[in-house]
Amino acid sequence: MTASHGYIGPIRPSMPPKPAVETRSSFTRRSIICNQEVQMPELFSINSTDFNGVPALQVRRRECTALVSLLGGQVMSFQPTGERPVLWHNPDLTWVPGQSLRQGVPVCWPWFGDLQKNPPAVQDTVARLFKEQPASAHGLARSALWTLQSSDENEAFTEICLTLELASAQVTLSARYRFGSDLSCELITQNNGKEPLILSMALHSYFQVSDIEAVSVEGLDGCNYIDALRDWTQHKQTGSLHFAAETDRIYQDIPAEISLTDSTWGRRIVLQAPDSRSAVLWNPWIDKSQRLSQFGAESYRSMVCIETARVMDDVFTVPPGGRSSLSLTISSDSSYDS
To answer: Rounded to two decimals, what is the model's pTM?
Structure first.
């Protein structure tokens, strides 16, 4: 099947104002998407759809359009009205059962990257929680089917809440997405057990750019980073980050706000992540693009990953009975004058 980005039914009138933001837990209609039954609320701004054979939810508001995949529990697209897409649209996207989707904001949890390169405490927690789980890259959340838990809408945003059923009852993972003028993402880890959980995670955001050589990342000046392409050695960023070769860096002790400036499009994307002190900057460039799945030979030119993370020295601990969140707000200004 091909991706369903277009017309999927009549667009309903603008929604009436609501006095408060309330998350609904009751559902009034059901939809069968890709042989999966999805309970849907009667909301103006959300419709069920089939995305490349994957059950998904499409959001249509006057401020934006967006798509959320239940596979991986991830935002696939976000486009403010009258502007270019904020998240990268992958023309080579395909879905193979058991694999993740390389687009939007994949969820990396309960570990990031190669499990063996995570701190020993993370490896120990993963082994305790998921004894039979193979150690695939970036954890188990991004290739699993999530469940729609609740949704709501008001004048400011549409909210979608998803949960992931896990083999271990000791931990619960949920995601809350809000779509309006901005995109807000929040991952919530709940510890239901009697021992602390030490985990790593990331919101692996792919951003759409005019050309990788026309963009820069601001806000990292003076930050230390680990260069995965130079034997995991540590370096210090000087000035803005520009791209002229393959890049795979883990920045540490970063500020709560960084930005991506596109000089060709005159756009500035701001990332606000108050819970995170680490970020991963990635672009595969020419050679690696030839080897990646779901990735065209020239796709590196139109994307860059700025991954909001809790990794390396920034891994997080969830006490027994407690919870920990990773939140990210993405805003776009297309009138930016660089």
So the answer is: 0.87
